[in-house]
Predict the 3D structure of the following.
Amino acid sequence: MPKEQTTTVSVPSGGVGAATVQLADLAVRFRSKKRDVTALSEVSLDVAPGEFVAIVGPSGCGKSTLLKLVAGLLTVSSGEVRLGGERVTGPRHDIGYVFQRAALLEWRSALRNILLQAEIRRMPSARARGRADELIRMTGLTGFEDAYPHELSGGMQQRVALCRALLHEPPVLLMDEPFGALDALTREQMNTELNRIWRSTGTTVLLVTHSISEAVYLADRVVVMSPRPGTITEIIEVGLPAERDYAETLGRPEFRAATARIRDLLGAVSAQE
Protein backbone atom coordinates (compact mmCIF):
# COMPACT_ATOMS: atom_id res chain seq x y z
CA MET A 1 0.00 0.00 0.00
CA PRO A 2 1.54 3.35 -1.00
CA LYS A 3 2.20 5.79 1.78
CA GLU A 4 0.44 9.15 1.94
CA GLN A 5 2.63 11.84 0.43
CA THR A 6 2.45 15.09 2.36
CA THR A 7 3.72 18.54 1.56
CA THR A 8 4.06 20.82 4.57
CA VAL A 9 3.55 24.31 3.22
CA SER A 10 3.66 25.83 6.67
CA VAL A 11 3.84 24.57 10.22
CA PRO A 12 0.32 23.30 11.08
CA SER A 13 -1.33 24.42 14.28
CA GLY A 14 -2.23 21.71 16.76
CA GLY A 15 -1.39 18.03 16.87
CA VAL A 16 -3.23 15.02 15.51
CA GLY A 17 -5.01 12.83 18.03
CA ALA A 18 -6.85 9.55 17.56
CA ALA A 19 -8.61 9.56 14.20
CA THR A 20 -12.35 10.15 13.96
CA VAL A 21 -12.38 9.04 10.31
CA GLN A 22 -10.05 6.29 9.09
CA LEU A 23 -9.77 5.22 5.46
CA ALA A 24 -7.48 2.23 4.95
CA ASP A 25 -6.38 1.16 1.47
CA LEU A 26 -9.78 1.82 -0.10
CA ALA A 27 -10.72 0.68 -3.57
CA VAL A 28 -14.08 0.99 -5.31
CA ARG A 29 -14.92 -0.76 -8.56
CA PHE A 30 -18.17 -0.48 -10.50
CA ARG A 31 -19.35 -2.92 -13.13
CA SER A 32 -21.50 -1.86 -16.07
CA LYS A 33 -22.70 -3.74 -19.15
CA LYS A 34 -19.84 -2.36 -21.23
CA ARG A 35 -16.87 -2.26 -18.87
CA ASP A 36 -15.52 -2.30 -15.32
CA VAL A 37 -14.59 1.05 -13.81
CA THR A 38 -12.23 1.61 -10.89
CA ALA A 39 -13.36 4.80 -9.16
CA LEU A 40 -10.91 4.78 -6.22
CA SER A 41 -7.66 2.92 -5.67
CA GLU A 42 -5.41 2.59 -2.60
CA VAL A 43 -6.84 5.57 -0.68
CA SER A 44 -5.69 5.87 2.94
CA LEU A 45 -6.36 8.83 5.22
CA ASP A 46 -6.82 9.54 8.93
CA VAL A 47 -8.85 12.59 10.02
CA ALA A 48 -8.42 13.77 13.60
CA PRO A 49 -11.30 14.85 15.88
CA GLY A 50 -12.30 18.42 15.13
CA GLU A 51 -10.15 18.60 12.00
CA PHE A 52 -11.32 20.26 8.79
CA VAL A 53 -10.16 18.38 5.69
CA ALA A 54 -10.94 19.50 2.14
CA ILE A 55 -10.76 17.21 -0.87
CA VAL A 56 -9.98 18.55 -4.33
CA GLY A 57 -9.33 16.90 -7.66
CA PRO A 58 -10.48 16.68 -11.27
CA SER A 59 -14.09 15.82 -12.09
CA GLY A 60 -14.76 12.10 -11.93
CA CYS A 61 -11.85 11.29 -9.61
CA GLY A 62 -14.07 9.84 -6.88
CA LYS A 63 -14.36 12.74 -4.41
CA SER A 64 -18.12 12.35 -3.89
CA THR A 65 -17.72 8.57 -3.85
CA LEU A 66 -15.31 8.98 -0.95
CA LEU A 67 -17.91 10.89 1.09
CA LYS A 68 -20.56 8.27 0.34
CA LEU A 69 -18.21 5.56 1.63
CA VAL A 70 -17.77 7.46 4.91
CA ALA A 71 -21.55 7.86 5.18
CA GLY A 72 -22.04 4.14 4.52
CA LEU A 73 -24.09 4.83 1.38
CA LEU A 74 -21.66 2.86 -0.79
CA THR A 75 -19.72 -0.31 -0.04
CA VAL A 76 -15.98 -0.59 -0.55
CA SER A 77 -14.66 -3.20 -2.98
CA SER A 78 -11.62 -3.60 -0.75
CA GLY A 79 -10.13 -1.80 2.22
CA GLU A 80 -11.89 -0.41 5.27
CA VAL A 81 -13.69 2.70 6.53
CA ARG A 82 -13.98 3.43 10.25
CA LEU A 83 -15.84 6.16 12.13
CA GLY A 84 -14.86 6.65 15.75
CA GLY A 85 -13.06 3.32 15.62
CA GLU A 86 -16.15 1.45 14.41
CA ARG A 87 -16.12 -0.17 11.00
CA VAL A 88 -18.65 1.32 8.56
CA THR A 89 -20.79 -1.49 7.14
CA GLY A 90 -23.98 0.38 6.23
CA PRO A 91 -25.70 3.78 6.31
CA ARG A 92 -24.62 5.87 9.29
CA HIS A 93 -27.10 7.88 11.30
CA ASP A 94 -24.49 9.74 13.37
CA ILE A 95 -23.19 11.97 10.58
CA GLY A 96 -24.41 15.20 8.98
CA TYR A 97 -24.53 15.57 5.19
CA VAL A 98 -24.82 18.79 3.16
CA PHE A 99 -25.21 18.60 -0.61
CA GLN A 100 -24.68 21.13 -3.40
CA ARG A 101 -28.36 22.02 -3.41
CA ALA A 102 -30.23 22.70 -0.20
CA ALA A 103 -33.07 20.26 -1.06
CA LEU A 104 -35.56 22.02 1.19
CA LEU A 105 -39.25 21.07 1.26
CA GLU A 106 -41.09 23.98 -0.38
CA TRP A 107 -44.19 23.59 1.81
CA ARG A 108 -42.26 23.84 5.06
CA SER A 109 -40.85 26.98 6.66
CA ALA A 110 -37.14 27.36 7.39
CA LEU A 111 -37.63 26.24 10.98
CA ARG A 112 -39.77 23.27 10.02
CA ASN A 113 -37.22 22.23 7.40
CA ILE A 114 -34.56 22.25 10.11
CA LEU A 115 -36.79 20.28 12.47
CA LEU A 116 -37.44 17.65 9.80
CA GLN A 117 -34.17 16.12 11.01
CA ALA A 118 -35.65 15.82 14.51
CA GLU A 119 -38.82 14.18 13.22
CA ILE A 120 -36.87 11.59 11.26
CA ARG A 121 -34.62 10.84 14.23
CA ARG A 122 -37.44 11.09 16.80
CA MET A 123 -35.50 13.59 18.88
CA PRO A 124 -37.27 15.01 21.95
CA SER A 125 -39.15 18.09 20.73
CA ALA A 126 -37.90 20.47 23.43
CA ARG A 127 -34.28 19.50 22.84
CA ALA A 128 -34.67 19.76 19.06
CA ARG A 129 -36.34 23.19 19.23
CA GLY A 130 -33.67 24.52 21.58
CA ARG A 131 -30.90 23.25 19.30
CA ALA A 132 -32.67 24.68 16.23
CA ASP A 133 -32.95 28.10 17.88
CA GLU A 134 -29.24 27.98 18.74
CA LEU A 135 -28.27 27.11 15.16
CA ILE A 136 -30.58 29.76 13.71
CA ARG A 137 -28.83 32.40 15.81
CA MET A 138 -25.41 30.98 14.92
CA THR A 139 -26.08 31.11 11.15
CA GLY A 140 -27.75 34.53 11.09
CA LEU A 141 -31.22 33.23 10.24
CA THR A 142 -32.98 35.00 13.11
CA GLY A 143 -36.14 36.59 11.78
CA PHE A 144 -36.46 34.12 8.90
CA GLU A 145 -37.73 31.13 10.88
CA ASP A 146 -41.18 31.32 9.25
CA ALA A 147 -39.94 32.08 5.71
CA TYR A 148 -40.51 29.49 3.01
CA PRO A 149 -37.71 28.37 0.67
CA HIS A 150 -38.93 30.51 -2.25
CA GLU A 151 -38.65 33.54 0.04
CA LEU A 152 -34.98 32.84 0.84
CA SER A 153 -31.85 33.54 -1.19
CA GLY A 154 -29.62 30.66 -2.26
CA GLY A 155 -27.17 31.42 0.53
CA MET A 156 -29.92 31.46 3.15
CA GLN A 157 -31.31 28.19 1.85
CA GLN A 158 -27.86 26.63 2.32
CA ARG A 159 -27.76 28.02 5.86
CA VAL A 160 -31.04 26.21 6.55
CA ALA A 161 -29.58 23.00 5.08
CA LEU A 162 -26.49 23.40 7.27
CA CYS A 163 -28.65 23.88 10.38
CA ARG A 164 -30.62 20.76 9.47
CA ALA A 165 -27.41 18.74 9.10
CA LEU A 166 -26.06 19.95 12.45
CA LEU A 167 -29.30 19.62 14.45
CA HIS A 168 -28.44 16.26 16.00
CA GLU A 169 -24.86 17.41 16.81
CA PRO A 170 -23.07 14.90 14.57
CA PRO A 171 -19.39 14.25 15.29
CA VAL A 172 -18.69 14.26 11.53
CA LEU A 173 -20.08 16.63 8.89
CA LEU A 174 -19.77 15.68 5.21
CA MET A 175 -20.14 18.49 2.66
CA ASP A 176 -20.31 17.76 -1.07
CA GLU A 177 -19.69 20.98 -3.05
CA PRO A 178 -22.23 22.84 -0.85
CA PHE A 179 -21.58 26.33 -2.24
CA GLY A 180 -20.96 25.49 -5.90
CA ALA A 181 -24.27 26.95 -7.10
CA LEU A 182 -23.85 30.27 -5.27
CA ASP A 183 -22.58 33.54 -6.70
CA ALA A 184 -19.02 34.57 -5.77
CA LEU A 185 -19.97 37.10 -3.08
CA THR A 186 -22.45 34.78 -1.37
CA ARG A 187 -19.94 31.94 -1.54
CA GLU A 188 -17.35 34.12 0.19
CA GLN A 189 -19.86 34.95 2.93
CA MET A 190 -20.74 31.28 3.38
CA ASN A 191 -17.05 30.37 3.63
CA THR A 192 -16.68 32.91 6.44
CA GLU A 193 -19.79 31.58 8.19
CA LEU A 194 -18.68 27.96 7.87
CA ASN A 195 -15.29 28.75 9.39
CA ARG A 196 -17.01 30.41 12.35
CA ILE A 197 -19.51 27.56 12.80
CA TRP A 198 -16.75 24.95 12.61
CA ARG A 199 -14.77 26.77 15.31
CA SER A 200 -17.90 27.03 17.48
CA THR A 201 -19.01 23.41 17.21
CA GLY A 202 -15.71 21.52 16.99
CA THR A 203 -17.26 19.17 14.43
CA THR A 204 -14.96 17.10 12.21
CA VAL A 205 -15.57 18.23 8.61
CA LEU A 206 -14.84 16.61 5.25
CA LEU A 207 -15.50 19.03 2.39
CA VAL A 208 -15.46 18.22 -1.32
CA THR A 209 -14.95 21.30 -3.49
CA HIS A 210 -13.69 22.28 -6.93
CA SER A 211 -12.51 25.65 -5.58
CA ILE A 212 -8.85 25.65 -4.60
CA SER A 213 -9.13 28.94 -2.71
CA GLU A 214 -12.19 27.68 -0.80
CA ALA A 215 -10.36 24.50 0.17
CA VAL A 216 -7.30 26.35 1.47
CA TYR A 217 -9.31 29.06 3.24
CA LEU A 218 -11.42 26.54 5.16
CA ALA A 219 -9.25 23.51 5.78
CA ASP A 220 -6.47 22.39 8.10
CA ARG A 221 -5.35 20.01 5.36
CA VAL A 222 -6.19 19.69 1.67
CA VAL A 223 -6.22 16.26 0.06
CA VAL A 224 -5.34 16.45 -3.64
CA MET A 225 -6.59 13.54 -5.72
CA SER A 226 -5.49 12.21 -9.09
CA PRO A 227 -7.69 11.57 -12.13
CA ARG A 228 -9.64 8.31 -12.09
CA PRO A 229 -8.90 5.91 -10.63
CA GLY A 230 -8.74 8.39 -7.77
CA THR A 231 -5.74 8.13 -5.49
CA ILE A 232 -4.24 10.63 -3.06
CA THR A 233 -1.56 12.54 -4.93
CA GLU A 234 -0.51 14.69 -1.99
CA ILE A 235 -1.80 16.13 1.28
CA ILE A 236 -1.16 19.82 1.91
CA GLU A 237 -0.80 21.08 5.48
CA VAL A 238 -2.23 24.60 5.21
CA GLY A 239 -0.85 25.99 8.49
CA LEU A 240 -3.27 28.93 8.86
CA PRO A 241 -4.73 29.96 12.23
CA ALA A 242 -8.19 28.53 12.97
CA GLU A 243 -9.85 31.96 13.03
CA ARG A 244 -9.58 33.40 9.55
CA ASP A 245 -10.57 36.80 8.22
CA TYR A 246 -11.33 36.28 4.53
CA ALA A 247 -9.51 39.23 2.98
CA GLU A 248 -6.55 39.00 5.37
CA THR A 249 -6.20 35.24 4.85
CA LEU A 250 -6.05 35.53 1.05
CA GLY A 251 -3.00 37.76 1.41
CA ARG A 252 -1.07 35.50 3.77
CA PRO A 253 2.03 33.71 2.44
CA GLU A 254 0.74 30.36 3.74
CA PHE A 255 -2.44 30.77 1.68
CA ARG A 256 -0.55 31.74 -1.46
CA ALA A 257 1.94 28.87 -1.05
CA ALA A 258 -0.77 26.25 -0.52
CA THR A 259 -2.94 27.40 -3.45
CA ALA A 260 0.10 27.57 -5.74
CA ARG A 261 1.14 24.03 -4.80
CA ILE A 262 -2.35 22.65 -5.37
CA ARG A 263 -2.63 24.39 -8.74
CA ASP A 264 0.69 22.89 -9.70
CA LEU A 265 -0.47 19.42 -8.69
CA LEU A 266 -3.72 19.75 -10.61
CA GLY A 267 -1.99 21.18 -13.65
CA ALA A 268 -3.89 24.47 -13.45
CA VAL A 269 -2.85 26.81 -16.27
CA SER A 270 -4.55 29.93 -14.93
CA ALA A 271 -4.81 31.71 -11.62
CA GLN A 272 -8.55 32.05 -12.26
CA GLU A 273 -10.92 29.42 -10.94
The chain has a mean pLDDT of 88. The chain is about 35% helix and 25% strand.
